[in-house]
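Review form for a predicted model. The reviewer records the input and the model, then writes brief findings.
Reviewer: anonymous (R2)
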Amino acid sequence: MVDPRATVGSSALVTPTGAVSPVPSWGAQLISESSTSSNWGNVIKIAVPPADAKFTTQTGFVIMCAGCGRNNIGKGYTAAALTLDISRTGSTYTATFTVTVAGGSITASGVNMYFGTSAPSSNAPGSWKPKATLFPTVGSYASGATFTATKTLTVGSGNTLYAALHFVSTKCTHYYVSAGGADPACGVRVARLAWA
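Model under review:
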């Protein structure tokens, strides 16, 4: 697993789309309320793309990890695979997470996305305004479903962008039979960005 505080070599992180050179340096930053807080998360730190360019993380670099306290994958499970596209047209930047919910009995709901020119001031995803545009727009995404979360912003100047994603993951591990029929044994956990 990649240490979330480290800056990782750009060749491992992004694939430029189109004739863009050089590939930007993307890094990661752990955000938490304190070193002992259970309220933690990761944000991707992104060098601003040149005009009319698009950068994409490589598949498998970033995952959504549910119950992975302080970025420890051993504490939870992979809830989704994702990529992040950052595009620029003039002074308008668009960030799009493409998320594929893991197989089995995992679902995703309550999606929140952060995209800005500084790291989030709060690790409370409900405070990340405005809300992302989701497609398709359904309340919950089933196992194997793919959806996108997109935000756009206009920036006068600056050379760094930040993006983060959060959702509620439900994983049903088995079913048991009761008088009323089959009932799932499900656990609900928060899924946050983690480094594969």
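Findings: The chain has no helices and 13 strands.
Further findings: The longest strand covers residues 160-178.
Recommendation: see findings above.
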